[in-house]
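Cross-posted from the bioinformatics board.
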Amino acid sequence: MREYKYQYIDGQWREGTGSHMLENRNPYTGELLYTYRSASTADVDAAYAAAARAQKEWAKTSPHEKQGMLEKLAQAVEELREDAYECLITEGGSTRPKADFEVATCIEFIKRAMNFPLMMNGKIMPSNIPGKENFIYREPKGVICVIAPWNVPMLLAMRSVAPAIATGNAVVLKPATDTPGSAFLLAEAFDRAGFPPGLFNVIAGRGCDIGDYIVEHPVPSLISFTGSTEVGRRVGALAGGKIKDVSLELGGNNVMIVLPDADIKEAAKAAVFGAFFHQGQVCMALNRIIACKEIYDAFIQKLVEIAGALKVGDPADPETFIGPIINSQQADKIEKVVRDTIAAGAKVALEGRREGNLIYPWILVDCTNDMPAARQEIFGPAVCIIKANDEDEAVRIANDTEYGLSGSVFTGDLFHGIQVARQVHTGMIHVNDQSINDEPHVMFGGEKCSGVGRFNDQWVVDKFTTEKWVSIQSCYRAFS
Ligand code: NAD
């Protein structure tokens, strides 16, 4: 795997000047991949200063120039595709299908962003003042700080980075400490594509050391944060204190409702993907499945049959569906939630087990919505099944959570499925599909504690830009 031991600031690879050496480890083997020195607050200052300078010139380039550079960026990521797979698998524990999906979607995000420079439309507005003409211009926000999580590190960084750059902004990206390599690989792609120095910077360090400083810094006008609700709350509060805009894409406790007329086999196949893809470490992963009493037993039987056959093991093996959890602390956390839920009365329909950072799939049944695994985001290969007496009860249980990211409804009647889906308080929900969906041209975002703001296409163009009113007087006004 490529070793990235330097920070990427102002178009240069520089050793960090922080006080800690940080380790990048393979979560499957435990092997130490490399160590690097963390970024300091002085590095953060340098990255923001470079970004502020570069942004002024970049904002003046034509849409055509921006599109051309984004095209080169997509090509550079394409050239680095094999390195990206290796990085996502080796440092992030991604399985090959997940790495494939991540790199392909990352490139798609860049290509989609090529439209954005021509989507920065303004308005001409009428005026009640004689001789006045009102123009509303859409301008870049300036410098955008992007904070990314470890679970889908390259794609979730690019989901903010590409639109930010396309709309005339500069970026300082802070990756999660478990997955710095995937962010530095993006820096390498920017470098190869020939972007102006300073337009895109990557600074890696622990959130607890430099996180607050990055957020409260006077330069960025928008903090685009993707991560847990707990840290998102803090980021939102700090940014609010400085009157900065935020985009918060946070945790989920996603639900699938299986109605009595659903195709049980299709629902079970979808549920296994939704609960266990990338070891359940996806914000949109299924945490809870609420099955109506008529099909409850049959559904569980099918679910156990399919999940029990999943291959667990080496993420580099193309047959593996469940690879390692990102680190041992996270694996301990998942095990604790499962054990606490069993202690609270849940039954085990499929028993998982632990081998190092591998956790085999768990299916917990006869759960109630107050049990730990039903209340918390599990973020691991475990799912709880809850029985509902009828559809109304299923919807009530689905909504009894602080989260509202994604969801799913399985039914034999698609139009009825839409009616049920609209009653579930989430930003996204899919009928006869599982909860993990992200298409670069379709709106993405959550409700309640799952976040603030919407991604993709016009939604992200609007979020990453600001509007400015300029008026002209074609004749002088009479002020007295
Ligand atoms: P996390 O909140 O622990 O960390 C996210 C990022 O925030 C990391 O880069 C981390 O270093 C940084 N950070 C930590 N403390 C900080 C601080 N004080 N100030 C600024 N930054 C700080 O999340 P994670 O464990 O990396 O990711 C998993 C979580 O992310 C899950 O809850 C998951 O649901 C959520 N997530 C949400 C989405 C979405 O689109 N809604 C997508 C992926 C992941």
